[in-house]
Specification:
Layout (H helix, E strand, L loop, with lengths): L19 E5 H6 L1 H10 L3 E6 L2 E6 L2 H7 L8 H18 L4
Parallel strand pairs: 1-2
Antiparallel strand pairs: 2-3
Length: 97
């Protein structure tokens, strides 16, 4: 992300988690290549909001494999990190219910 980009990084406190952050949809459009690279390389999760409402997220492909019902395709440590990053993202926006 560029130096002028406002980021909110939410890291797991005791259990490892991949980076999770929120950005506005406008910021996401401007920085999409960087966000995609972070999802691939850092395994980060980026949530997008507009007018204070969470709209969606870009997640690593390993998280998609878990959602699709292929848990054996992802090792146990990665499962824990993805789950914790997702929880951090939801807690960061107050969307955890």
């Amino acid at each position: 992300m560029s130096s002028g980009t406002r980021k909110q990084w939410l890291l797991g406190s005791t259990t490892p988690a991949f980076p999770a952050r929120f950005c506005s949809t406008s910021e996401g459009r401007r920085n999409l290549p960087d966000i995609l690279q972070d999802a691939f390389g850092l395994k980060s999760i980026t949530g997008f909001h507009r007018y204070g409402r969470t709209l969606g997220a870009i997640i690593p492909i390993e998280a998609v494999r878990l959602l699709a019902g292929y848990p054996d395709a992802v090792d146990d440590a990665m499962k824990i990190r993805i789950r914790n990053a997702a929880l951090n993202l939801l807690e960061g926006q107050g969307d955890l219910r």
